[in-house]
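Hello,

Our lab assistant flagged a job as stuck in the queue for most of the afternoon. It eventually completed. Since we weren't sure the result was trustworthy after the delay, we are filing this so someone can double-check. Below is the sequence as submitted and the structure that was eventually returned. Let us know if re-running is recommended.
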Amino acid sequence: MIPSKFLENAVNELASLPGVGRKTALRYALNLLTRSDEEVQRFTDSINSLKENLQYCDSCFNISDSKLCEICRNPRRDNQILCVVEDIRDVMAIEATQQFKGLYHVLGGKISPMDGVGPSDLKIEQLLNRLKNTKANEVILALSPTMEGDTTAYYLFKKIGKLDGTEISTLSRGVAVGDELQYADEITLGRSILQRMPYEKAIHG
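-- returned structure --
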């Protein structure tokens, strides 16, 4: 029993976060009660500011503080190589390896009929338009080696394959089948990027 409805409401909201159970949520809420008004204000202000000010890059759909993210604005990045990922956590994971110097395109998910997610729900049309306008030499399909990830990669392969002069590659299978890309360790993920292979070779074994 939680003796306060205010505390219970806070616990319910904290417990709605992924990976946070009610015991952990209660510990967080009680910890906040021990903090000064200024600390709690900074905490709540940071959450409000996140929702109010965070944007998505107009070019790659990564999170950004401005219309173009830092990666897209960086003149040292290779704009001839485009790495296609499912979400922003994959961008963070790949950037942590320091092995990729090209640009990204964030799909915002993966094709999953069971979850009601189709191609039109993702940033696929924007990707195709971007490729037509930028003429990237290589597109890396850096999607998780799950059933949904493989389905999405194959769909993109068929769509992008219609564009002339674009090489399509994928990560080497250093990332275990069934794993989410964002959870791969940096060394394995970095090696998978450097040792990437033509997509067509990967699907034909």
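-- support follow-up --
The delay was a queue issue, not a problem with the job. The result is valid. The mean pLDDT is 88. The first helix runs from residue 5 to 15.
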